[in-house]
Amino acid sequence: MSGRRSLPALPEVPPGIDQRVASVLTPLKEVVEVREGLRGDPLARFATLADLVSLGLVSRDQALALVK
Fold first, then answer.
1. d(CA 46, CA 24)
2. pLDDT 10s digits, 8-42
3. How far apart are CA 68 and CA 64, in angstroms?
4. Four-CA torsion 32, 37, 39, 41, nearest 10 degrees
């Protein structure tokens, strides 16, 4: 696939944070990391429009038309 843009890492959920907040932040962090392909099954990550263009599945113009 295309060269993936480097994104800043999400920080760990800080210790001492309210448990109700932590119970939301922890799985949210995991979902983002899996979908970005940073952890877990590589086949579970999202494909970007740039990925589709680099594979020749859509043209750049077609991809850009999707976000207008």
1. 21
2. 889 999 999 999 999 999 999 999 999 999 999 99
3. 7
4. 110
Question: Could you give the C-alpha distances from 32 to 9, 14, 26, in angstroms and in order?
Answer: 10, 17, 10
CA angle at residue 10 from 51 to 4, to 5 degrees? Answer: 15
pTM (2 d.p.): 0.72
- Give 3-state DSSP helix, strand, coil % of the chain, rounded to 5: 50, 0, 50
Whether residue 53 contacts residue 20, with contact meaning beta carbons closer than 8 Å, is answered with no
The predicted-structure confidence for 35-46, as pLDDT tens digits, reads as follows 999 999 999 999
For residues 40 and 43, what is the distance between their CA atoms, to the nearest angstrom?
A: 9
